[in-house]
Specification:
The longest helix has 19 residues. It contains eleven helices and seven strands. Strand 1, helix 7 and strand 2 form a beta-alpha-beta unit. The protein folds into two domains: 95 residues, PGBD-like superfamily/PGBD (Muramoyl-pentapeptide Carboxypeptidase, domain 1, Orthogonal Bundle), CATH 1.10.101; 138 residues, Zn-dependent exopeptidases (Aminopeptidase). 44% of the residues lie in helices and 13% in strands. By secondary structure, the chain is of the alpha/beta class. It is globular, with a radius of gyration of 21 Å.
Length: 286
């Protein structure tokens, strides 16, 4: 029987889990703050509201659709993350300028009509996104800031000690996701590692940003390099890689990995730490 509006039963849990899976969130079946916010964002369709640079930034599936359409037309909106930030502001202005429209960086009805007119009528799912093409070609500004670590895991503490011998490291133990992301973005962090000890988990899970028909290629490559190195060194019994849209992955603009590990003993964690450090140093020195 389908749950009544006042009942949060198995049917509702299954629907919430399905939504979380589709959006790249942790699958809990619980409508926490992150899930609720994504539910609200999913309700917006392109053209239902004006879109422009605001503070706080406008967020929603309509913003992501605007990013995708502009990227398919060769205008760089930055990462496809459903957040209306400065790069999307510039891309929308460039589009309006190229189309002879009033340049106000606002998705007005007239701008939407022009965007719809120049967008191919056939399926655009296979069209290349200019932001991803730039990433593959290496046209991405290299960050020069610190390595940022966050989390309460022992592995985070070990990585802090290990990496600090070779790079500047800023480590957060109990700061909020938004605080960590704001610091990393403002200080042009070279990479962010978010590390959690998940008691019910076995092995190691490496998550990079993936959502809205797009993903972080650099994040995927870094996760793959770490997984390969861990496999060769036998530092971890099992390593899984998956793209997700967890808050820390969405809010940070640079390469970010969210690492989850189970109940490894200290010797195992030190081996994992040494392997991750080795891969990071190799990547940074290329």
């Amino acid at each position: 029987m389908i749950d009544s509006p006042l009942t949060y039963g198995d049917e509702t849990v299954a629907l919430v889990e399905s939504f979380q899976r589709a959006k790249g969130l942790a699958i809990t079946g619980v409508v926490d703050e992150t899930t609720w916010n994504r539910l609200v964002e999913a309700g917006w369709r392109l053209g239902e509201r004006l879109l422009f640079l605001a503070h706080p930034n406008l967020r929603g599936d309509d913003v992501a659709e605007l990013q995708v359409r502009l990227a398919q037309l060769g205008f760089n909106p930055g990462r496809i993350d459903g957040i209306f930030g400065p790069l999307l502001d510039e891309a929308l202005s460039d589009f309006q300028r190229n189309c002879g429209l009033e340049v106000n960086a606002t998705l007005t009805r007239r701008t939407l009509l022009e965007l719809t007119r120049v967008t191919p009528s056939t399926s655009t799912s296979s069209r290349h996104l200019v932001n991803e093409a730039r990433d593959v070609a290496g046209f991405v500004e290299e960050a020069s800031g610190p390595i940022v670590l966050c989390g309460t895991s022992t592995l985070r503490q070990l990585l802090e000690d290990s990496l600090r011998r070779q790079r500047k490291v800023i480590s957060f133990e109990k700061a909020s996701t938004l605080d960590v992301a704001s610091f990393a973005n403002e200080n042009q962090a070279i990479v962010v590692l978010s590390i959690d000890h998940v008691h019910a988990s076995e092995g190691l899970r490496l998550h990079y940003w993936a959502s809205y028909r797009s993903h972080s290629r650099r994040g995927e490559m870094l996760a793959s390099a770490i997984a390969s190195a861990l496999s060769k060194s036998h530092a971890a019994s099992r390593v899984e890689i998956a793209g997700m849209a967890l808050p820390i992955l969405r809010e940070t603009k640079m390469t970010t990995l969210h690492i989850e590990h189970g109940g490894h003993d200290e010797l195992d964690l030190r081996a994992i730490c040494d392997t991750i450090t080795s891969v990071l140093m190799e990547v940074f020195h290329r």
